[in-house]
Amino acid sequence: MVTRIHVGGDREYDVLVGRDLGGELPGLVGDAARVAVLFSEPLRAYAEGIASGLGARTTMIEVPDAERGKTVEVAARCWDSLGEAGFTRSDVVVGVGGGAVTDLAGYVAACWLRGVRWVPVSTSLLGMVDASVGGKTGVNIAAGKNLVGAFHPPAGVLCDLDALGSLPADDLTAGLAEVIKCGFIADPRILELVEGDPAAAADPGSDVLRELVERAVRVKAEVVSVDLKESGLREILNYGHTLGHAIEKREKYTWKHGHAVSVGLIFAAALSRLSGRLDDETAARHRAVLASVGLPTAYGQGAWTDLLSAMRVDKKARADTLRFVVLDGLAKPGILTGPDEGLLREAYAEVAR
C-alpha cells in the first residue's frame, strides 16, 4: 500500500509513503535521457539498487556522508560531474539518503542550468518528514546552517519505510524531534500516539511510526502548499529551530539535527511560557514527550553567549531584531519579535539546568 500526499502550489507534486518504493522512481524520472544519482557511501548498495531500475542512463555520484557533504565545494564537484556527463535541462537529479544528501541534491539541481528536475529518495526519518518535503534546498557555510540555498520543489518524493530498518536507532530517534514538533504546532494526535506507545513510535516496522510519518508529512504539505518561500505561514515549521541551528553551529555540526531541535523545542516552550503566551502544562509536556523517546532536553550552561551570537544570523531575524516561533497554545503557533535579552536568558536557564 502506497499513501500519496499531495503538495499544492505553483509546482505541485506528490509525496509517496510506503514500502519497497523503488518501482515508483522510473515514473517520476520520466523520459529523461540522463539521471544523476547522488548518494553517500553507507547507502551505496541501496542507491545502486534504486539506479538499476533506471537502466544505463545513470551517473552515480558519491558524496561525503551527513553534514560533511552539504557544502559548496561538494556541490561544485557534483556540477563538474553533470558537465562531464552532458546533462541538459531535460535530465534529472536523484538524491538518495538522509536530509543532508537530499538538501545537497536539490541545491545541485536548482543551480544546474538554472533549474532541472530532481527527486529525493528519502531513507531517514528526518528526511522523510522534513528535508525532502517543501522544496527548500541548500548547503552550509561557516556563517551558519542552510544560509546558501534555493526554493526548488521536487518532481516527487519517495519515503521508503523499508529503508528505516537499516537506520541506526539514534538516527531514527533524532528524526522524531521533527515529528513531535509537528504535533505541537498543528496535529496534537501525533503527541498522543508518541505518548501512548513511545517504543512503537521508534520502531521502524510499526504501524504507529507509519502513521506518524504520514501525519507529519501532511502537516508540512499543508503549510508549504500555501507558503513555499517562507513569506508568512511557513515560518511556523521553524518552531524550535532558532536555538537548534545555533547549537548545531556551535558543535560544528557534530550534533544530529534532531537532537539540536529537541533542545530548541524546550527553549521555545520556555520562551512561550515566560512571555505569557503558553500555559504551564503544555510547556512541561514538551520535556516529557521528548524524553519519552530518548531525545536530549538540555544543553551546556556556559554556551549562552555563543548561541546568542549564532541566533542573530538566523534566517528569521530581521536586521538586528530576533524573531522566534512560539506557541499561544497547543497547535496555535505565533511569532515573538524582539524579546528582551533577559527573557531569553531566563528561558535558556531552563535548558541549561
State the gist of this model.
Helix 5 runs parallel beside helix 9, helix 6 packs across helix 7 and helix 10 (241-250) packs across helix 11. The protein has helices at residues 25-29, 44-52, 72-85, 99-111, 125-131, 169-185, 188-196, 198-201, 207-226, 241-250, 257-274, 280-292, 304-311, 341-352; strands spanning 3-7, 13-18, 35-39, 58-62, 92-97, 117-122, 136-141, 144-151, 157-160, 323-327, 333-337. Strand 5 (92-97), helix 4 (99-111) and strand 6 (117-122) form a beta-alpha-beta unit.
Structure description:
It is a single chain. With 353 residues, the protein is an alpha/beta fold. It has two domains: 3-166, Rossmann fold (3-Layer(aba) Sandwich), CATH 3.40.50.1970; 169-227 and 239-352, Dehydroquinate synthase-like - alpha domain (Dehydroquinate synthase-like, alpha domain). It is built from 14 helices and eleven strands. It has helices at 25-29, 44-52, 72-85, 99-111, 125-131, 169-185, 188-196, 198-201, 207-226, 241-250, 257-274, 280-292, 304-311, 341-352, and strands spanning 3-7, 13-18, 35-39, 58-62, 92-97, 117-122, 136-141, 144-151, 157-160, 323-327, 333-337. The strands form three sheets. The chain has a seven-stranded mixed beta sheet, with helices on both faces. Strand 3, helix 2 (44-52) and strand 4 form a beta-alpha-beta unit. Helix 5 runs parallel beside helix 9, helix 6 packs across helix 7 and helix 11 (257-274) packs antiparallel against helix 12. The longest helix is centred in the middle third of the chain and has 20 residues, at 207-226. It starts with a strand and ends with a helix. The model has no long low-confidence stretch (mean pLDDT 93).
